[in-house]
Design goal:
The chain is of the alpha+beta class. The chain folds into 2 domains: about 10-80; about 90-235, Alpha-Beta Plaits, CATH 3.30.70.270. It is about 55% helix and about 10% strand. It has 7 helices and 4 strands, in the order H-H-H-H-E-H-E-E-H-E-H. A 4-stranded antiparallel sheet has the order 2-3-1-4, sandwiched between helices. A hairpin with a 4-residue loop joins strand 2 and strand 3. Helix 1 packs antiparallel against helix 2.
Length: about 260
């Protein structure tokens, strides 16, 4: 009988807790959207609603308000560190997480590899109103790139760090040498979605090495990798010299030759 009473009491307390959790998450989501849109009137209304939730005691209202504001804080923190389009870390988030990974690598005397990606078809930073289709195609390409990197580095979020650094520049930091093999990456970029007939990702890739015996900061690694990408692009863009055949010294000109 006592056990049944405890179960009933637990269920009675867990039901309101679940309702508070769901309601607080809902309010936090609405608050985040209103803040992102700059809708001050809606923000004020939502905050006011939190102060007068009907059917709850004062203590329950306080807990609901606290939970909603905590959820909002976590949501905003995530938005500040993540790229909304690709789902990867943004530059700020990447720099923070990559710095922590390099600190651990230095402590454990572990090699790490930075893979730098430049998506050449995403060079235009601003969508053009008159070119709506091109803007949509660019977004689709960036989303594909995000999915490609998550498939390429399956330990991201645990042992690996992925980020979108700018419009078309991405980076991955990994201690797994096999995942940083440039030839493998380029081969995978040719068929980024298995089983799909998607076009190859137009990538330029550079790989640089972090040696714990002579450590450098993440920004230095990025600069080195970016320089390598620029050098490779310059070599590809340089015109090839035209080869002109030169007759051997002392040989007769072709026009003077007669047929037998």
């Amino acid at each position: 009988m006592e056990l049944a009473s405890v179960v009933q009491s637990t269920a009675a307390h867990s039901a309101p807790a679940a309702v508070w959790a769901a309601r607080s998450l809902e309010v936090a989501t609405q608050l985040r959207a209103a803040i992102m849109e700059g809708d001050d009137t809606r923000v004020a209304r939502l905050l006011s609603d939190l102060l007068r939730v009907r059917g709850l005691t004062k203590g329950q209202r306080v807990r609901l308000q606290s939970r909603a504001l905590m959820n909002l804080m976590h949501s905003l923190r995530s938005a500040a560190l993540n790229d909304e389009l690709t789902g990867l870390l943004n530059r700020r988030g990447f720099m923070q997480s990559a710095t922590r990974l390099l600190d651990l690598a230095l402590r454990d005397h572990q090699d790490v590899h930075l893979v730098y990606f430049r998506l050449s078809a995403a060079e235009s930073a601003r969508p053009v109103a008159a070119d709506h289709d091109a803007s949509i195609a660019r977004e689709v390409l960036l989303r594909r790139m995000g999915n490609f990197l998550r498939d390429l580095f399956p330990s991201y979020g645990v042992y690996e760090v992925l980020g979108r650094l700018s419009t078309g520049d991405f980076a991955a930091l990994t201690p797994i040498a096999e995942n940083a093999a440039r030839d493998t990456i380029m081969a995978r970029a040719g068929q980024p979605e298995s089983g799909a007939e998607a076009a190859a990702l137009p990538l330029q890739v550079a790989v640089v090495h972090f040696d714990p015996a002579s450590p450098v900061a993440i920004d230095e690694l990025l600069q080195e990798a970016c320089y390598e990408v620029l050098q490779a692009a310059a070599r590809e863009a340089a015109p090839r010299p035209t080869v002109v055949p030169i007759a051997s010294i002392g040989s007769a000109p072709r026009s003077d030759l007669t047929l037998a």
